[in-house]
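PROTOCOL LOG
Step 1. Enter all chains and additional molecules of the complex.
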Amino acid sequence: MAGSASAGAGLPPVVAQVPTGDKVVFLTIDDGWYHDPAVQRKLIDERIPATLFLLPGATAYDTPYFTDLVGQGRVKVENHTVNHPDLTTLDAAGKDAEVCGAGEQLAATFGMKEPKLLRPPFGAYNDDVRLAAKACGVKALVTWTYDFTTWDTTPPTPRLKAGDIVLLHFTPTLGADLQRALDAARAAGLKPAALLPQLKTAGIVP
Ligand SMILES: [Zn+2]
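Step 2. Run joint prediction.
Step 3. Record the structure below.
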């Protein structure tokens, strides 16, 4: 099934959809290169829970955009590596530098503990990536159920189900993409919820 959680050989599970009986969806916003003030205000003012998988370099030149989101909104920051590589192509030291390095930088920037979740760039992972992530304190790899990002064109809007994980990006179309995701959630009778607590409730993250 799409989005099942797998846990093998003590490796962190990979989650594309959260098993839940709650009427919730999970909004995730990646990378962090484009900083639309209107999106920041919306996330803060409407108290929208979202998980941000941020690249440290994308936050460095405008850190308050994100620290304000964390401080005033309901967002949480998680790991998306330092340089956005396909982690499956790197040797062990390279994986360690990308995942542990990003965790350390985000922890320092945001005054938080090191992230427990990793979104592998491009959704690319294998058991070696899971092993490297585990060594960096990662409890689960999170991919996605649907990508709502407008790349060249706006993708068709799917019918969301409880537990779906929506992928968005900090691009110039984030405001519109976020609104489509919120509208799709509402149309399905679902509300955005915080991801990490639900992963704990589901027994996916200890
Ligand atoms: Zn990314």
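Step 4. Note key features.
The longest helix spans residues 92-110.
The chain is about 35% helix and 15% strand.
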